[in-house]
Write a structure and sequence with these properties.
Length: 146
């Protein structure tokens, strides 16, 4: 067997091996599922931006999806608890918003800084409102000196 013939066979086998590796890698990437389940969040969010009346549907969708993930003992995708908390806050439900922010902070430690700030803000608002509601009514002040 001469060297040129050996080189040709080696080149042929390397070429086919490279093609097989590339094909396998492409197949693996094509069938890989996403890391998290988002439950149609992206399309529901887009719809709510275009139609503000669809925010209720977004909230309902998030509530159902999060409940399904929790009952299946799967990790809720990053940001979904925070998004649901913000939707509760927009509706004036600070208690449920705080609960969602705390769940986001616990599930995703990298969100701790933002979630802590949100929680502190809501807690200070609640404290301020509590102080105002328990403060005695002020006496009327005369505007003209006597």
């Amino acid at each position: 067997m001469n060297i040129q013939n050996m080189h040709s066979k080696w080149s042929f086998s390397v070429r086919w091996t490279a093609i097989a590796v590339i094909a396998t890698a492409m197949t693996g990437c094509a069938t890989q599922r996403g890391l998290y389940q988002w439950g149609g969040y992206d399309s529901a969010l887009y719809t709510s931006y275009k139609n503000p009346e669809a925010v209720v549907a977004l909230q309902t969708n998030l509530e159902k999806h999060i409940a399904a993930m929790q009952s299946a003992k799967q990790k809720v995708a990053p940001g979904l608890h925070a998004e649901l908390g913000s939707l509760y806050l927009q509706r004036g439900d600070s208690k449920r918003a705080l609960d969602q922010y705390r769940q986001e902070r616990q599930a995703w430690p990298e969100s701790r800084g933002l979630m802590d700030a949100m929680i502190r803000t809501l807690e200070s608002r609640a404290e301020k409102q509590s102080d105002e509601s328990t403060a005695p009514a002020s006496l009327p002040v005369d505007k003209e000196p006597v």
